[in-house]
C-alpha cells in the first residue's frame, strides 16, 4: 500500500516513471528513516497520541527493521516507492492499527528530509575521517622524502627550486582548509526538519525540540517553508564541499602522473597499482590516477546538476527535488573511494632521489643568482638583465 493511496489504480507506466530508482537508492536510508521514526514515536507518546505500550511496540519493531537492514534482509519493492512506505507497511503488517498511527503529525516531505539529513551527517563524518587519514599519509610521505629537491614549475617549464616537502605541504594545508569547509557545511545541515509537514506546519501542536534532541540535531530549522526551499540548496553545498576535496586530488594525481613519467622519473608508482595494454607488452598504465582525475569532474557535474534541477521552482515542495538524491549519494561514494585510493597510492609511492637530483639544472637557480647581486647593491632590474643574458639562446 502506498502512503497516498486513493480509490483509483495508478497507471503502471506512470508509476514506474514517478518512482524512478528511489526504491533502490533508499536502501541506504532505511536505518536513518527508522531512527527518525523512533524519535517521532517518542514525541507522539509525550504529547499523548500514543500509549506507552504502543510506543514500545513501535520502537522495538523499528529497531528490528534496522537489524534486518543490517543483514540485507529488508528489501524495498518498486511498488512501495521508497523506504518510508516500505517501513510503514511493515509496521502495519506487524502491529495493525498501532502501525497506522506512526505517520500522525508527519508528512513524507519532512520524513524524507530527516532521513537524508541524518545520512548526510554520517557521510560527512566519514569523509572527514578519511581526509584525516590522507593528511597523516601525506605527512608520513613528507617525513620520508621531504628534503629531496625537485624542480618547481610555472607555465609547464622549470622555474625555481622546490622540494617534495613543499609539494606535500601544499596539499596538507589545502586539505586542512577543506576540513574547515566540511565542518561548516556539517553545521548547516545539522538542523532538524522533522515536524514541519509539507512546508506549511501542522494543524496539531507537537514538540519539535524532543525529536531534534533525540536525533542529535544541534538545532531546529524553524521556518517550515524554508525547510522545503532548502532542498537543493543544502545538497549543492555538500557537493561543493566534496568538489573541493576532489579538486585537490585532481591536481595531486596530475602531478604524480607527470612526475612518474619515465621522461621525468621523480616518482615511482608500484607496478601492482598499474594496468597493462592489450597490444603493447611493455605498458604499465596509471589508470587509477587518471580515473581519480576524471572523478573530480563527475562531482562538479553533480553540483551543477542539483543546482539546475532546483532552479526556477516556486517555494514549497516540488517533485523535481526527488532527482537530487542520486547525485548526492553518488557524490559521497565517489569522494570516499577516491580518498581511500589515493591514500593507498601515497603509502606505496616512492621518490627516485637520483632522478630528482639530476633534474636540478642550473636555470632553476637564476633568481637566486640575481638576488646575490642585489645583496651586493646591484639594482634588481640590472641584476635581472645580467643573469638573463646567461640563458639567452644564441
Sequence-ordered SSE layout with sheet pairings:
Elements: H1 12-19, H2 22-25, H3 30-46, H4 52-70, H5 83-95, H6 97-100, H7 108-145, E1 149-154, E2 157-163, H8 164-189, E3 191-192, H9 208-215, E4 219-220, H10 224-229, H11 233-259, E5 267-268, H12 287-309, H13 325-348, E6 350-351, H14 353-359, H15 366-375, H16 380-388
Parallel strand pairs: 3-4
Antiparallel strand pairs: 1-2, 5-6
Helix pairs in contact: 3-4, 3-7, 3-9, 4-5, 7-8, 7-13, 8-11, 11-12, 11-13, 12-13, 15-16
Explain how this protein is built.
This protein is mostly helical and 394 residues long. It has three domains: 12-100, Fumarase/aspartase (N-terminal domain) (Fumarase C, Chain B, domain 1); 108-359, Fumarase C, Chain A, domain 2, CATH 1.20.200; 363-391, no CATH class. The protein is 62% helix and 5% strand. It contains 16 helices and six strands. Strand 1 (149-154) and strand 2 (157-163) form a beta hairpin. It starts with 11 loop residues before the first helix and ends in a 6-residue tail after the last helix.
Which key phrases capture this entry?
394 residues; mainly alpha; Fumarase C, Chain A, domain 2; 3 domains
Amino acid at each position: 500500500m502506498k502512503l497516498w493511496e486513493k480509490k483509483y489504480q495508478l497507471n503502471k507506466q506512470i508509476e514506474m516513471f514517478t518512482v524512478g530508482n528511489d526504491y533502490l537508492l533508499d536502501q541506504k536510508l532505511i536505518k536513518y528513516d527508522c531512527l527518525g521514526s523512533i524519535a517521532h514515536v517518542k514525541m507522539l507518546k509525550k504529547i499523548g497520541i500514543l500509549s506507552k505500550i504502543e510506543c514500545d511496540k513501535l520502537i522495538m519493531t523499528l529497531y528490528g527493521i534496522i537489524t534486518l537492514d543490517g543483514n540485507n534482509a529488508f528489501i524495498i519493492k518498486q511498488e512501495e516507492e521508497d523506504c518510508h512506505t516500505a517501513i510503514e507497511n511493515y509496521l502495519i503488517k506487524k502491529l495493525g492499527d498501532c502501525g497506522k498511527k506512526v505517520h500522525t503529525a508527519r508528512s513524507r516531505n519532512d520524513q524524507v528530509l530527516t532521513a537524508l539529513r541524518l545520512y548526510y551527517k554520517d557521510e560527512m563524518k566519514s569523509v572527514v575521517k578519511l581526509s584525516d587519514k590522507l593528511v597523516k599519509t601525506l605527512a608520513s610521505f613528507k617525513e620520508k622524502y621531504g628534503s629531496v629537491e625537485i624542480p618547481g614549475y610555472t607555465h609547464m617549464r622549470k622555474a625555481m627550486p622546490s622540494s617534495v616537502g613543499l609539494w606535500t605541504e601544499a596539499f596538507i594545508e589545502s586539505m586542512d582548509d577543506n576540513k574547515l569547509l566540511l565542518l561548516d557545511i556539517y553545521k548547516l545541515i545539522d538542523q532538524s526538519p522533522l515536524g514541519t509537514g509539507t512546508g506549511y506546519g501542522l494543524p496539531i501542536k507537537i514538540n519539535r525540540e524532543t525529536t531534534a534532541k533525540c536525533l542529535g540535531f544541534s538545532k531546529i530549522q524553524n521556518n517550515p517553508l524554508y525547510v522545503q526551499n532548502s532542498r537543493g540548496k543544502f545538497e549543492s553545498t555538500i557537493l561543493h564541499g566534496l568538489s573541493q576535496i576532489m579538486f585537490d586530488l585532481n591536481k595531486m594525481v596530475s602531478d604524480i602522473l607527470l612526475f612518474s613519467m619515465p621522461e621525468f622519473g621523480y616518482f615511482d608508482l608500484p607496478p601492482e597499482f598499474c594496468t597493462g595494454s592489450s597490444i603493447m607488452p611493455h605498458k604499465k598504465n596509471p589508470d587509477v590516477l587518471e580515473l581519480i582525475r576524471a572523478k573530480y569532474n563527475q562531482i562538479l557535474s553533480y553540483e551543477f546538476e542539483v543546482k539546475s534541477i532546483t532552479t526556477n521552482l516556486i517555494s514549497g515542495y516540488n517533485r523535481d527535488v526527488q532527482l537530487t538524491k542520486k547525485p548526492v549519494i553518488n557524490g559521497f561514494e565517489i569522494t570516499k573511494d577516491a580518498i581511500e585510493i589515493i591514500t593507498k597510492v601515497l603509502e606505496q609511492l616512492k621518490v627516485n632521489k637520483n632522478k630528482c637530483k639530476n633534474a636540478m639544472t642550473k636555470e632553476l637557480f637564476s633568481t637566486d643568482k640575481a638576488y646575490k647581486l642585489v645583496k651586493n647593491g646591484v639594482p634588481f632590474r640590472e641584476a635581472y638583465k645580467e643573469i638573463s643574458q646567461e640563458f639567452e639562446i644564441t
